[in-house]
Design a protein that fits this description.
The chain is of the alpha/beta class. The protein has a single domain (2-237), classed as Rossmann fold (3-Layer(aba) Sandwich). Strand 1, helix 1 and strand 2 form a beta-alpha-beta unit. Strands 2-1-3-4-5 form a five-stranded parallel β-sheet. It is globular and about 55 Å long. The longest helix is centred in the middle third of the chain and has 20 residues, at 115-134. It is built from seven helices and five strands; from the N terminus they run E-H-E-H-E-H-H-E-H-H-E-H. It comes from Spirosoma terrae. This is SGNH/GDSL hydrolase family protein.
């Protein structure tokens, strides 16, 4: 069984200690327990545009299963809230988190703000984001929507063996709100009618215990294991996955 997995740094278990498995590792481990021989080809990219470019160059017909994880929350990439001011990802496919935020979105001072001030700043940013969305001035959302549509066009001929993962949650309230906006694109009825969509938000919540202490945007070992195991269960039950040899439940 040949599997293609493409997503962001979570695919490789970014930030995990030696010996700890990413969600991919847990997913494959569960398949191996059924007696299947599995080979995995994995890619990590920064944006949906980069993912599409790679997929267009791969022989997708040769894979038995294709798993696509929405890179870095989809909407909040390459650099959190600042990405909302980017109209295209074409020039940012190689970036990770090094985009400079606008001054009014940067921390109040170099010194870490007091908890109360930090809460006020976060709530002000969230109010601004919601206001932008309400007024229809959310250019990044429209761009990501186009990027996703273009990406799914490449995958559509192989939709019977594709699982899409919604953007992973984030422990920060502002980033989580952004990822929820990205999630709505994946949960749209037109997408779900063609593809199997695994809602990761049902498995891992926006709470600190699921994320790395130093990198709150990335899952820790617990988060990875929960996602990997749940993905295996979803894979067994996914209604549109019809081209894969059946796995006997154990």
């Amino acid at each position: 069984m040949k599997i293609l997995i493409i997503g962001d740094r979570h695919v490789g278990g970014y930030g995990l200690a030696a010996g700890q498995l990413s969600f991919v590792g847990h997913f494959i481990r569960q398949i191996n327990k059924t007696g299947r021989t599995v080979s995995v080809e994995a890619y990590a990219h920064s944006t949906l545009t980069a993912v599409r470019t790679t997929l267009a160059q791969l022989p997708l017909e040769r894979y038995d299963l294709i798993v696509m994880q929405a890179g870095k929350g989809c909407l909040d990439h390459p650099a959190g809230i600042g990405s909302l001011f980017i109209n295209s990802s074409d020039n940012y496919t190689a970036l990770s988190d090094d985009l400079i935020l606008p001054k009014f979105l940067q921390p109040i001072s170099v010194v870490k703000p007091q908890p109360v001030l930090e809460k006020v700043r976060e709530r002000a940013q969230l109010l601004m984001l919601k206001s932008m969305a309400l007024l229809g001035r959310f250019p990044r959302l429209a761009t990501v929507s186009r990027e996703l549509t273009s990406l799914l066009t490449v995958l559509r001929p192989h939709r019977h063996k594709v699982i899409l993962l919604t953007p992973f949650p984030h422990s920060d309230s502002n980033q989580q709100w952004l990822r929820q906006q990205g999630k709505t694109l994946f949960m749209h009825s037109q997408v779900r009618q063609s593809f199997s969509v695994f809602d990761t938000d049902l498995i891992v919540r926006s709470r600190e215990e699921y994320f790395l202490a130093t990198q709150p945007g990335y899952l820790n070992a617990i988060g990875h294991e929960l996602i990997g195991r749940a993905l295996f269960d979803y894979y067994l039950a996914a209604p549109t996955i019809v081209a894969i040899h059946p796995i006997r439940r154990t």
